[in-house]
Amino acid sequence: MSARVKFALGAVIIVATLGWLGWVGATESKTYYHTLSELTALQGSARLQRMRVSGYVKEGSIQRLGNQVDFVLAEQGRTLPVSYVGSDPLPDTFYEKNAQALVQGRLDRSGKFVATQVEAKCASKYVAAPASAPAGAPQTGATVPQTAH
């Protein structure tokens, strides 16, 4: 075999391998967003895909079991049991009343959602500025963002 043929064969193998790795990486990193209502309509392999789901953490549903945290997401009359098995601590706002959470993971065969990542929406609110604001502060009636973290 000549040196040119060996070089061409090696180049083809390298390009094919890189293409395959790129395709596998792209398909594995896809994350689909679904609402709780949409989860019931998913069929077949769509139920096993990696996905993101949001909802409100049902009050009183948070339970710690060693390194696992179980809770229930609720929205529009539907509920979803979730088990968080990630290594990051849960955000402080996750434990507040009416906390909104976004979970990422997969549904298991029993219908329970196994989350590898949990995000909690930061509770922000706007309040009116005080009437006797110091110089340089927003004028009376203006709104000032205040966040509680």
Helical fraction equals: 10-25%
The CATH topology of the largest domain is: OB fold (Dihydrolipoamide Acetyltransferase, E2P)
Main sheet: strand order: 2-4-5-7-6
**What's the quaternary structure here?**
single chain
The CATH homologous superfamily of the largest domain corresponds to Nucleic acid-binding proteins
The major beta sheet can be summarized as: 5 strands, mixed, barrel
Shape: elongated
Count of folded domains: 2
Radius of gyration: 24 Å
What is the tally of helical segments?
2
SSE order: HEHEEEEEEEE
Q: Tell me the fraction of residues in β-strands, as a range.
A: 35-45%
Distance between the termini: 68 Å
Q: Look at the helices and sheets and give the structural class.
A: alpha+beta
Q: In the CATH hierarchy, what is the class of the largest domain?
A: Mainly Beta
Overall pLDDT score:
77
- Contiguous low-pLDDT stretches (5 residues minimum) are 137-149
